[in-house]
Every structure is written in C-alpha cells, then in structure tokens.
Design goal:
13 strands, seven-stranded mixed beta sheet, 424 residues, single chain, alpha/beta, 15% strand
C-alpha cells in the first residue's frame, strides 16, 4: 500500500506491529508534484514551475542515496531548501544537494531557516567534542539504522549550507506557482519552523510530530518547550490540513484523522505541563514530581505516542528546568560533596563495596532496577577499579536496558553496561 494508506491503517486500526518510521532512502509520490524521501530525516519535495522546493536535507551519511532518489524523480534545479530546524540529521545532507546542483550547472539554492539556526550552528562548532560524545552515547547502539550525525569529521559537517534567508515569526515565500507560509514555534528546538502549503492543504511539520512521544525531554540536550509545542500543534490543527508531512515517519492524510492526532498529542503535552506546574506551585520537589506525575497509559499506547524515543519522565524534568532552574529542591544537592567521597562513606557504613554490589544484584534480580542502579553506582564510584563491582554494574545496567521503552534510556544504560563490561 502507499504511504498514506499505510499510515491510515496504523492509526485507525492501532497497528503496533507496523513500523511508521523507516529509513529506506526511497522516494514516494504523495500527491501531484509532491514527494517524500523516507530517510533518517525525511526530505519533502515540491515540484514547481520554477524548480524544486525541498524541506530538510537529511544527514551526511544518507545524503548520497537521498540525492539519487531525488534525481530519479526530477532533474530540475533545487531552487529553495527550507530547514525546519538546525539538527544535523536535517541539515547535514545539504552539502551534497548543493554539490549535485553545481555539477549540473544549477545555481545554488536559496536556503531558508529561522534566525536561530545560525546560532545553533555556531554552538555546534564551539561544542563539537561534547556533541559528538552525547550523540555517540544516544545513537551508538543504533548504527545499523544509519544515524547521520555519527559520520564525518565534525558533528556539524564542514560543507553544511548556511542560511541565505532567515525569518523571525512568519514569512511568506513563492517559488514558481507554489505558495509557502512559514511559521516559527519553539518545541523540540528554539529554531523550529513549520509550513502551511495552502494549495495542497498541507502542513510540513518537521519534528513537531515524530510518530512517538514528543522529544521534549531529551536528558542530554538543551532546553525543550513542551507547552509551546502543544500551542503550535493547536495552530496547525486550526488550519484544517488534509495532509501532514513530518520529518520522521509516514505522512498522514485525512482532515479528521490529522485533527485527532494533533489534538491528542497537544492534549498530552498540555496535561503533563499543567500537572508539573501545579505540583511546583504546591511546593513539591523534583523528586516528588518525577515519581508522581504520569501520562495516561491508554494515551501512551497509541501508535503515534508510544515512548519509544523520548518519554514523559524526561519531559517532566525539562518542564522543571524551564520553570524552576537546575536545583532539584534537595538542600544537600545545592553544594554537594564529590560523589566519590559520598560513595566511599556509604560503602564503609554498609560494610564494603562488595556488600553494595551484591545487594544491587539482588534488587535487580527482583525487578527493582531503580534502586539497584543507585547502589551499584555507589559501589563503582567508591571502587572504580574493582572488576567484580564492574561485573555487577554491567549486568545490572544491561538488565535495566532490557526493561526500558525509550531509545534514550536504553542507550544510556547500554553505554554504562559496556563501560563496565570493558573493565570487569
């Protein structure tokens, strides 16, 4: 079946056995003069009477097959390239697109993005080592899926195309016979743009919809904005789109179906933000909020809201960070002792690191992975060179990884297990 039929069946029949996010690098026509290339980040292509308009460029590692698929569909010049935001899996392939055009004798495309994209690029260049490290940890176990951000000498590829045109709140574009209305909203990033294409009754949404619980809590990345994310989804729904084109996952067709999806995601985010803020106003600590605020399991069971990438518990922490800062409400954590000092003291009180490690094993085998991880981490901090402690740590974090649903949690626990396995 075509992409719209497939997404409709997944949503309408709640088919959880069918993948909605696929990295095929293949192009499918969605409508007349409109196509999508499914990649680690999709490329949405519009054919106009003055050349092609692309939304996003995919990443460095997938750029070759993406360009090949595009050129199997059209040899026309790429006149405009729109970045929905500056994440490297959306912009990293831009150099290949520009190079392909130059080889064909085409002029370079106009590259459009929000005014904060350039600041993001500068931050990536200033923190190259940090970003390579955290993305290696987040995606290192998913190499076979082809994550674009792990290739190349730098986190942000040297040949990335800089924006030649930027906007702040809204911008109207016309490329040939295609009208584009660009709008800015903070959500996953502070530089995110989405587009209304009136002639197609379509919204190009970037990462505002990723066929998973919104990436509004990533524990290793900068601030996300779940409340404004929900507001953007409400604004999209008010336009009555009949076609939704995301940067990750299948396109969605049908006015009512799209309205229902956008409303459900927005409602989940709004409720989560409200519950956290209410608890903060009541004087709760971060620890109390993390262990009490929940999203309805029925909502999390929907095929477009499962916590397979990010998860609500991480979003709770991001809401706290947005409104409450970095201190978690525990006075001892304001200016704490070094972790290794505390760990050594507690290990002595417990009777040694072996006792902590063994108790951690017992807790993990009984299913209490949260407490087990605390204890084995204390043991490892108190005795960082003890192979027996690292053997326990590797076993416990591997067991915890297997119980998690989100890629982010799985990846961090996998990294911890691997670190200790190498030292045991």
């Amino acid at each position: 079946m075509d992409l719209l039929e497939l997404s409709s069946s997944i949503i309408d029949e709640r088919r959880l056995d069918e993948r909605a996010v696929r990295v095929t690098n293949e192009l499918s026509e969605i409508a007349d003069r409109l196509a999508m290339i499914e990649s680690f980040s999709n490329v949405v292509a519009f054919d106009t009477d003055d050349g092609l308009v692309l939304f996003d460029a995919s990443g460095k590692a997938t750029a070759g097959p993406v360009v090949a698929s595009l050129r199997g569909w059209s040899d026309d010049p790429v006149r405009t390239l729109v970045y929905t935001h500056g994440h490297v899996d959306h912009v990293g392939g831009s150099g290949a697109i520009v190079a392909d055009g130059r080889a064909r004798g085409h002029r370079d495309p106009m590259v459009v993005g929000h005014e904060n994209v350039q600041a993001r690029f500068e931050r990536y260049r200033a923190t190259d080592g940090w970003n390579r490290s955290i993305n290696e940890r987040q995606f290192g176990g998913a190499r076979r899926a082809g994550p674009a951000m792990l290739d190349g000498e730098r986190f942000l590829p040297d040949d990335v195309a800089e924006c030649s045109s930027t906007f702040r709140d809204r911008s109207g574009l016309r490329v040939g016979d295609l009208r584009i209305e660009l709008r800015h909203a903070r959500g996953e990033t502070d530089d995110h743009a989405w587009a209304w294409i009136p002639d197609h009754r379509a919204v190009v949404v970037g990462d505002f919809l990723v066929w998973a619980f919104p990436n509004a809590g990533n524990p290793q990345k900068v601030q996300r904005y779940p409340g404004e994310w929900a507001a953007a989804l409400r604004e999209m729904a008010a336009l009555g789109p009949e076609l939704l084109l995301p940067a990750h996952g299948l396109p969605i067709g049908g006015r009512q179906r799209i309205a229902d999806v956008l409303d459900t995601i927005a409602g989940a985010l709004e409720r989560l933000v409200a519950d956290v803020v209410d608890a903060m106003n009541a004087g709760a600590t971060l620890d109390e909020i993390v262990h009490s605020v929940r999203v309805d399991p029925d909502v999390l069971s929907l095929p477009f809201l499962r916590p397979t990438y990010d998860e609500p518990e991480f979003v709770v922490r991001n809401v706290w960070r947005l409104y409450g800062g970095w201190w978690d409400g525990d006075p001892a954590q304001l200016k704490p002792a070094p972790r290794s000092t505390l760990a050594t003291e507690l290990a002595e009180l417990a009777g040694g690191t072996a006792v902590l490690a063994e108790r951690a094993r017992v807790l993990s085998e009984g299913g209490d992975h949260r407490l087990a991880c605390h204890l084995v981490e204390l043991a490892a901090q108190a005795a960082p060179d003890d192979p027996d402690v690292h053997d326990a740590r590797a076993t416990i974090y591997d067991a915890r990884r297997r119980t998690e649903t989100s890629l982010m949690a799985k990846a961090i626990y996998r990294t911890a297990a691997t670190e200790s396995a190498d030292r045991s």
